[in-house]
Amino acid sequence: MLPAANRLTDGADFRLVTRRGRRAGRPRLVVHALVAAAEHETGADPRPPRTPAVARVGFVVSKAVGNSVTRHRVARRLRHVARDRLGTLPPGGALVVRALPMAAGASSAELGRDFDAALRRLGLAGGAAHPRSGGGV
């Protein structure tokens, strides 16, 4: 389980991260990221700054992934993957991890590899980001 301070729970925060943040897709998941410093420097968020000192993570596992047992298993695995990497995430940043249908049959190790690759692509952990060719993120 993620510590309460690291949970992204407000629907408005989910919308803000998915609409204003950068995204990196992998075969089993898509990670949306919004780093607090960039959000407020550009004035993208009209609300007053709410930058907690810790990274927050939220999960979206839709019915396309499978039945309720499968969705909860995927969400549980993703929570554990994210919890193990909280120390590498930028303070004040927010992530939304959206599971894709291929996540239903994935092991925790496979989800972890996809999560790490998405973070690297976003430039949030473990090396430089891989720029996306042909447009914005």
What topology does this entry show?
Blueprint: H1 11-20, E1 22-25, E2 29-34, H2 36-41, E3 56-60, H3 68-84, E4 94-99, H4 108-122
Parallel strand pairs: 3-4
Antiparallel strand pairs: 1-2, 2-4
Helix pairs in contact: 3-4
Order of helices and strands: HEEHEHEH
- Measured distance between first and last alpha carbons: 30 Å
Helix content range of the residues, please? 25-40%
Mean pLDDT, as a whole number?
84
Radius of gyration, whole Å? 14 Å
Q: What's the overall geometry?
A: globular
Question: Number of domains in the coordinates?
Answer: 1
- Main sheet overview: 4 strands, mixed
CATH architecture: 2-Layer Sandwich
- Work out the number of β strands: 4
* Uncertain stretches of 5 or more adjacent residues: 126-137
**Percent of sequence in beta strands:** 15-25%
Figure out the total of helices: 4
Explain what you see.
The protein is of the alpha+beta class and 137 residues long. It has one domain: Ribosomal Protein S5, domain 2 (2-Layer Sandwich). The chain has 4 helices and 4 strands. The chain has helices at residues 11-20, 36-41, 68-84, 108-122; strands at residues 22-25, 29-34, 56-60, 94-99. A 4-stranded mixed β-sheet has the order 1-2-4-3, with helices on both faces. The radius of gyration is 14 Å and the shape is globular. The N and C termini lie far apart (30 Å). Mean pLDDT is 84; it is low at 126-137.
